[in-house]
Amino acid sequence: MHFVTLKKWIYAGKVKAIKTLGGQYRIPESEIRRLLGQPMPKNKAIIYARVSSADKKEDLKRQKQMLQEYAKQHGYEIVATFEDVASGLKDDRRGLKKVFDALRAGQANVIVVAWKDRLTRFGFRYLENHAEDLGARIEVMNEQEEKAPQQELVEDLLSIVTSFSGRLYGMRSSKTKKVVEVVKRAIS
Questions:
Q1: Any idea where the Resolvase/invertase-type recombinase catalytic domain is (predicted)?
Q2: pTM here?
Q3: Same domain, 133 and 48
Q4: 52 given a catalytic annotation
Q5: CA pair distance 101, 12, nearest whole angstrom
């Protein structure tokens, strides 16, 4: 196949491709398999766990254990487990980057997380769409009920205030706790 034909197919939407910042196109393995009529590996899962600070390492351990049990109960073959000890607002987490590198390589078709906010505090749908573009989906173990828009907004605001005040004053400082309390009282 000529590269001009491939570009035309990409523009026409016949072939899914990811455009890099440099203007080049990358075709995910899942798309190549689709075009060749080969099935994607089924039930191959990547587990992703995250906690916000090093003093929560025990929580991280429990989270991974719960996710492994969940994956086994749902018939998934666990191909990799990645973790991060970082804020959900941090956009350059090493473990999360490895998750999407593994998806790009076609190693799995499911990402299993305990809660949406373990993957990211904001922009979950962007990551969900990106995973779908790579031929995978995100499965949330503890799906929460739909929240009222006001409740969701308040929780988002508190997450932002906590994160930024933590960066300014240090995570365990009393100033951080005071700032969060003042904001909670102001919005309640």
A1: 44-187
A2: 0.64
A3: yes
A4: yes
A5: 26
